[in-house]
Task: inverse folding
């Protein structure tokens, strides 16, 4: 969590937006009292983890690796 007064937040606004977009909680205070919390409208995308889809693919067609004849001209 980061806390900034209004004047500092104004001067560093782009940086604070970036922090909030990365998931950090950004608090803006006036007279040392929190008045705002800067949060993104959407949650930041979580990085993909290897193996997280294990067991999700239940069927693969037997000819999955076969190139269709109509694609031969493009190869």
Result:
């Amino acid at each position: 969590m980061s806390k900034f007064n209004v004047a500092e937040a104004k001067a560093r606004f782009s940086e604070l937006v970036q922090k909030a977009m990365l998931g950090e909680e950004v608090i803006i205070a006036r007279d040392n009292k929190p008045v705002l919390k800067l949060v993104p409208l959407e949650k930041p995308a979580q990085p993909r983890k290897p193996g997280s889809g294990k067991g999700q693919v239940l069927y693969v067609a037997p000819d999955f690796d076969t190139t269709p004849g109509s694609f031969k001209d493009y190869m």
Observations:
- The longest strand covers residues 33-38.
- The helical segments are 6-11, 13-21.
